[in-house]
Amino acid sequence: MYNLLNGKIIISNGRTHFAFCFSKIFWIFFLTFIFCFYFLIQKWTTKSFIINKNLKLETKTNFFNEIVENKQSLNECIENEKNNSDTKLRLECCGEKMSYSFNIQTNNKLTENLVSGRKFDCEHLKILNKYKLADKYKIKQKIPVKRPGDKRFTIVTAASTGFFPTLRKLLYSMKQHFGCSQKIICYDLGGISEDKNMMEELNSVCELELRKYNWSIMPKDVHSPQTYAWKIYIISQVFSQYDTFIWMDTSINLEDKKYLDPIFEAIEKGKISEMVFPGGMFTYTPIITDWIKIENQKWDVEMYDANFIILHKSEYTRNYLKWALLCAATKQCIHPEGSQLYCTSPRTTIGSCHRFDQSVMGILNVDSEYKRSLIGMKI
């Protein structure tokens, strides 16, 4: 028979066992071990968290320091380029080609000449780096074409208060075609963000991102909205963020979205370039042959309309936008003195009219297609 007395187990044979005491000591030891183990884990994880947090903070700090250092070195390089008389004759800035050029074949392709334009201001190298259009950001891999509904695809437009009625029409049309699965980016060129009624209406549109355009990123002499330099700046910014996108003026009316599918397929298969414009306009722009004699007159084409543009990210479009952006940042290029918006007569054969962004894009596009033809690529 077992009796419990003062923490001891008494057995009838008179011998005493300390089983109960052993059990008590075991549990004290076990609980102490658990407490110490828990304490060590807490200290270890906290220390690891602090170390990890410090590493992340250090990495983040190093990243921002690197950006600042790169920016400082770029600024120093640009200043040296400006102050050094030996570099003024060069066509580069800090290793970046800043003079547009292309080869011209004449005499039945027996003669080839390199034609170079005026060097752009080295100061504009900053905006090329900002939007990753400089040559050091060359795109070496093929990027799959994105289509409406994909997160890497978007539709872009811009408007000020005066164009709000057409903006409303465009947004309604796009949502009718694509629904809420497609994001639209609208840049406010002035006044919309400050108008309560307009903002209430825009806030009710699903998947719409309103961005207030930052005019300060452009040189002051191209600030005029009628110069349309802002459009090329916007396209360049969106190019740095999305793989494929469509630019639409607010005047655009898309009849059926199915018309876009053959274009996307042709870009994907390499049958057409990654920058697509609609048909020609009433104005005629002698692209090449007014200045350089080429036997084949097919390169003098009607001006491309720039109110609807399909653009896909590639090395071709990166290089294209590099020169378009440099031109947009330079008044004498995007809005040369003496240029006139309207031609004296429809389809004139004299390059007397100038349509700012449209002229820039048209010239670059034809020149680029001409370059492709020289190396046997499809145009």
Protein traits:
single chain; 379 residues; alpha+beta; Spore Coat Polysaccharide Biosynthesis Protein SpsA, Chain A; 2 domains; 9 helices; 15 strands; 39% helix; globular; disordered N terminus; transmembrane; membrane; transmembrane helix; Nucleotide-diphossugar_trans
Q: How would you summarize what this structure contains?
A:
39% of the residues lie in helices and 17% in strands.
Task: Lay out the secondary structure.
Elements: E1 3-5, E2 8-10, E3 16-17, H1 19-83, E4 92-93, E5 96-97, E6 101-106, E7 111-116, H2 125-130, E8 153-160, H3 164-178, E9 184-190, H4 196-203, E10 208-212, H5 229-239, E11 244-248, H6 261-268, E12 275-276, E13 280-284, E14 302-304, E15 308-312, H7 315-328, H8 331-334, H9 357-374
Parallel strand pairs: 8-9, 8-11, 9-10
Antiparallel strand pairs: 1-2, 2-3, 4-5, 6-7, 11-15, 12-15, 13-14
Helix pairs in contact: 5-7, 7-9
Structure write-up:
- The chain has 379 residues and is of the alpha+beta class.
- The protein folds into 2 domains: 3-39; 118-374, Spore Coat Polysaccharide Biosynthesis Protein SpsA, Chain A (Alpha-Beta Complex), CATH 3.90.550.
- The protein is 39% helix and 17% strand.
- A 6-stranded mixed beta sheet has the order 10-9-8-11-15-12, with helices on both faces.
- The longest helix is centred in the N-terminal third of the chain and has 65 residues, at 19-83.
- The radius of gyration is 33 Å and the shape is globular.
- The protein starts with a strand and ends in a 5-residue tail after the last helix.
- InterPro entries: DUF1647, Nucleotide-diphossugar_trans.
- It holds the Pfam family DUF1647.
